[in-house]
Amino acid sequence: MPTNGAEISVAVANDYINDFIANYFDTGKAPVKSMILDAGLLRDYLSNPVIQNIKFMLGERTVVENGIDKKVFTLIVAGYDANGNYILTPSGNVLDHTTPCPTMCPTAGNAANDNIVM
Fold first, then answer.
1. What per-residue string of b and e applies to 54-85 under the rule 16 or more CB within 10 Å gives b?
2. pLDDT number for residue 19
3. Which of 1, 57, 105, 113 has the fewest CB atoms in 10 Å of its CB?
4. Which parts of the chain register pLDDT below 50?
5. How far is Cα of residue 45 from the mean position of the Cα atoms in its chain?
6. What's CA 76's distance to the chain center, in Å?
7. Where in the chain are the domains?
């Protein structure tokens, strides 16, 4: 079975990011550059030891920007167990409502950049 994840260098990550921005965001094929999820929400969900893997699924939802409905990509996060069965949050949900960037990007610190800079 292929690896379900690995660390990559910042340089490789930035190459991937730049390719996505150039090929999708800059051409209008994708309305976002990135999506932001609260780390505490993710930590709480992943504290369930039954979760063996995490599936990240792309979706589309509507946000209101300057009083206008705008379609943005979102990232639905759902963990699953060793048998491939989804594990829901204690309230029976999965994670979503990522913050779309450029709609609501960080404006301070090095996370305000499109690339990973230190």
1. beeeeeeeebeeeeeeeebbbbebbbeeeeee
2. 96
3. 1
4. 1
5. 15
6. 8
7. 34-106
